Amino acid sequence: MELSDNLMYTAMQRLILLHYQKVLYVDLTEDFYSVLKIDDNEWNMSVYNDKQKKISEWFSYFAESDLCHNDDRQTFRNFADLEKFRKQIKENEEKPIRCTYRRKIKPDDQSFTRCVMEIFPYTDKNLHQIIFLFVREAAKSNSIFNRMNESVQRLKEKNQFISHKKFNEKKRILVVDDNSINRNMLKEYLDDEYEIIEAENGLVALDILFYNYQNISAIVLDLCMPVINGFEFLKKVQLNPLLSTIPILVATSATDNDDEEKSLSMGATDFVKKPYNPVVVKMRLSKIIKMKEASEMVFISEFDSVTGFYTKEAFCHHIEMELNNNPQYDYDIVVSNIDNYASIEQCYGKSNCEKLLPKLAEVARNATDDVVFYGKIGERTFASLVKHTSSFDDSFFREISEKIADIIQIENIQVKFGVYESIDKDISAIESIDRAVSAMNSISKKFGTVVAFYDKKVAEIQAKNFEMETAFESAIAKEDFEVWFQPKYSAKTKSIVGAEALIRWRGKDGNLISPAEFIPLFETDGLIPILDEYVFKKVCAYQKARLEKGKTIVPISVNLSRASMFKKDFIKNYTKIANEMGVSRSCVPIEITESMAVKSSSVKSFAEELINEGFSLHMDDFGAGYSSLASLQILRFDVIKLDKSLIDFIGTTSGESLIKHTVAFAKESGMKVVAEGVEKKEQLDFLREINCDYIQGFYFAAPMPQKEFDKLLTGDSKI
């Protein structure tokens, strides 16, 4: 079987890049192999090659021979099953595969040698599944750090091949075109400004990018090529969070308008017509490189500056590399964070809490020797890729949690872990991480529980969350979100003096979805500001409708999340909505939680601006968590709301004393007081006795739909 020049070049390039002892061309469809290179010491191949040309039988022969280590026999038995092997390659989208194994070089050898086999698949023009198979001895390594150094060395070797001018300051352009005339033409055009790297097809280009993405400023891509064409190249590049940041200039013919649209939709940055106009090519390259350099996504650092761990994007990239290179191993993903970080930050201050992260990273590094590498995947969330182990149990993670508490020396620190065991190699790295995070989130706020494993129950929660996120936009448009109202009553007169707007979600089946299910989800995924504004608009519209009908209105407060306060122009938008509805800002008070009020100076400045725009500011949930009377002086609150957890202390001497002093302090400071969660007559009697102003709770009324609230306001508003 003859090899095309392009494929032979691919093989020869790899022979140059690394020192292989064995190189095979394999047709998995025909069960045929051809030896392209074999060293003299490759005894088993040279002997067996005379007997048989079927790759399946050679794999079987090696798997059962004394040359193969017992632990690696199953790997080669799997390779010998060509139908299964071809299916694995197809499901892996023809990505390169790398595995390590141990073997004897010759039958009389006393010890086994660790080797690396790299497999590079593609589909030829006859739809045959072809692989190039490369084998070399691995560098000796005694620890994971040595294996990492080996990877770094491989990277350096590949960089040396590409960057023959080590200190050249020119930006590098990867030209991907099977036509050598076109490549030479572009090289001649661009050589004065750029260093040109050539690839004659998409397979070679992907290999160059995979190991050298940091050194490539832009790509000029031809669409019509053998092995992997331009569209397949674009598809594979967009699947990788790091490779997808490199701008791509697609070369098309003068009549290929459809190709231009398709390539742009698949992630290409710009296009240029053939035959090339040197001036146009240079201008467009310069433009897309400048766009790249101006884009925040391009400045993705491989490593987090605080912990030294991989960033989330780099962590995902290296997970995929590790899985592709070592398909014979199973891996776990472990994620962790401090569940009560916000409370700790409130007590100890932001600057002190930021110093915790390096300490946490240090504990993570020393937790187990099975970790391949680490990542910082969120502001305070760590992750690690670990070779699958049976040692992960509650006691293991509880011990780590105790070590963290000892080092940090903060009482009641709550560290949570999520584990996704034996990760599914058919899903993306980000999906695997999400599964571990879902497990961790399932035990958030559960005191005493340290670790959760991704299982069927967590999967159901994750699926339900995904369903809610997917349905969110439609639910907003169809007004499936309903604004309900819980009245506030005067403690003295028992008349309605206001209400709080609460959100409810009417599901497809007509039943209500609990806010406890979707509010935390939308706070996490960033959808909550949209919901906040939706409620604010609905309340303003309700107030406007009553005014237009000549009916009386009462202030209806709306809750504002921290995420909404940091949304650009949110105060301007809220003011505009109130103005357009013709509703006074005092009729739509804004509720923010106590923790938000004391957390940062930026929240304080936003709150001051709200007050200056005429909004009444209410402090919600006072008494929940770490409360202090000093927090009442931080902002100019008109009203404070005592949390139900505080009201439940009524009936105890210490609890009643605390509530009495809180109410007195608030009133002396010029604030009104609302007690929420009032359910008993004894609670009402005590609150009236200490001159609490307003009552909200089931004792008077539960949250109700708009129509019921409207009837309540229109009719007798006294209880």
- Structural class estimated from helices and strands: alpha/beta
State the helicity in percent bands: 40-55%
CATH homologous superfamily assignment of the largest domain: EAL domain
Label the overall shape. elongated
Mean pLDDT: 81
- Per DSSP, what share of the residues sits in E-state strands of 2 or more residues? 15-25%
Provide the CATH topology of the largest domain: TIM Barrel
> Any idea what the radius of gyration is?
33 Å
Supply the CATH class of the largest domain. Alpha Beta
Number of helices: 28
Précis, in short:
44% of the residues lie in helices and 20% in strands. With 719 residues, it is of the alpha/beta class.
Describe the structure.
- 44% of the residues lie in helices and 20% in strands.
- The chain is an alpha/beta fold and 719 residues long.
- The protein has four domains: 134 residues, Beta-Lactamase (2-Layer Sandwich); 130 residues, Rossmann fold, CATH 3.40.50; 128 residues, Reverse transcriptase/Diguanylate cyclase domain (Alpha-Beta Plaits, 2-Layer Sandwich), CATH 3.30.70; 250 residues, TIM Barrel (Alpha-Beta Barrel).
- An eight-stranded mixed beta barrel has the order 17-18-20-21-22-23-24-25, surrounded by five helices. Strands 11-13-14-12-15-16 form a six-stranded mixed β-sheet, with helices on both faces.
Question: Which features characterize this protein?
Answer:
alpha/beta; 719 residues; eight-stranded mixed barrel; six-stranded mixed beta sheet; Beta-Lactamase; Rossmann fold; 4 domains; Alpha-Beta Plaits
